[in-house]
Structure formats: C-alpha cells, structure tokens
Amino acid sequence: MAGLAGQMTNAPVAGRCLSWILLLLFSVLAVAGLARAQERSPLEQVRQSGILKVALYKNFAPFSHDGKGTDVDIANALAAKLGVKTSLLWFDADENMEDDLRNMVWKGHYLGYGPADVMMHAPVDREYMAKVDKVAFFAPYHRERYAFAIRLEKLAKLESLDVFERQLLALEGDTLATSVMLSADGGRYRSQLKLTRTAAEAVTMLKSGAVDAALAQQGELEGGITGDARFAIDLPPHPILQKRQWAIGLAVKAGSKDLAEALQKAMNELLADGTVKRIMQQHGVAHRAP
Asked: Which of 34, 93, 137, 173 has the fewest CB atoms within 10 Å distance of its CB?
C-alpha cells in the first residue's frame, strides 16, 4: 500500500511536468512558425494571403474618389496580374508627401491604419527619391503637369496671363501653381484669384459660372470637364508652370524587392498592351507617357 500511495502522490507531479513540457513544445513550434512567416518575402506574403493592400488618396478625382478612378482600376489590374485581389486602403493627404509615405508605405499610421503593400500615385522623381531612403519608387505610369481649364465664351485661348487682370481664376491653395500666380507680374492678378481647398472645388466653380478659368493638374481638370463643350484645356503661358511636369508611379517599403519587381513587370505589360491608356480614357484623362 505504501508503494501504491507513493505512486498516487507522484502522479499529479508527473502530469504537471508533462503539461509544462507540452506547453514549452507548443511555444517553440509557435515561435518557429512565426519566424518562418517572417522569413517569407513581401511578394510571398501577398500571394499567400491572396490580397494586395493598396493605398489610395481620397477625394482625388478622377484618379481615386468615392471608390473609383484611374488608380483604382490600375490597382485592380496589377493585382490580377499577380493572381490576387485588392484591399483598398483609403487615406486623406497629410501635410506633405513624407507624412503620406510614412503612414501608408513604410510604418503605418499611429492610429493603427496601414501600412499598405503598395501606394498608388507616388512621385517618381530622381531628386526626391534620393532623399527618401525608407521607400522604393518605381513603375511610372503617367505624367502630370499644370494646365488651365477655360470657359470658351470668355477665353478662346490663353496667350498670356494678362487676361486675369479682368477674368476670375479658381485654383487650389498651397500649390506651386498658386504661388506662381500670386507673385506673377508683380502680383497683378492677386485680386482675381479664388483659392479653393481642392482642385475639384475649382472645377465646380468653373462649371457653375463663378469663375472663367481653373488652374490645376491637367488630369484633374480633364476628368472634371470631359464631354462638356463649353470648356477647353490650355497649357499655362508661364515658363515655370510649363516646365513643371512629373511622373507618377508606385511606392513600396524599401527592401520589398521581389514585390517591386513583380509590380514593375505587371505595369510594363499594362502599359504595353494599352490597358493603362484605356483606363485613363474611360475616366476622361488623356494618358501622357512618363
């Protein structure tokens, strides 16, 4: 009986030891699994999840607004090339591009939103790219520039800025174009400028008759007035605004080499077969090769 009693006394201890051993084993396996997951490359993670998380600007028609736009369609086409679907992460533009890239590409927002796998409509500019080491910019798919949308009954063609001594001009505040117009010709046009929060608001003012012209990115103007014969697009009669053009493309976190290569290949194919051009045209934008 004494031997049996001893065995009964030690049984709970042995059970507890076994439980601890199993718990330790499961912990080791979990850590090993996590390590293997972390070893997977960005492209492998996207393909395993079946989802490409794409960051898109809000209120940026015709590129991305209210769930649609050129960038939305291009993002979906890129994901299809990778054999996955998109998960769209919409965000408001912050004070500067560095904030947007931090929140949506390489770190994530402090409120827990993001980052995405890739961001659309990122600047592909050599000088700017050299300053941002946490992000890789690539796959330019369109070229933007400033332009005027004009009301034809008031302005047949813009040969100089002198017309804005008499005609009203709407333009988005806090842009290079606004700075140029505020200072052009010694500030002669200041009283005729109507600053708006967005380019879309400038287009709305033009279409309502509140102003005679709007100045913004050409793509935004094209998307706003397409199909309306009352208006036309004209290029700026000013050397700074004429010269300022920029390519837009994709951005991923630095180090996401295989994902960037796959997206670059997909974008090359979409450009070569005319998909990007067709998407732009569907939204009223004339595609300009980067």
From this structure: 34
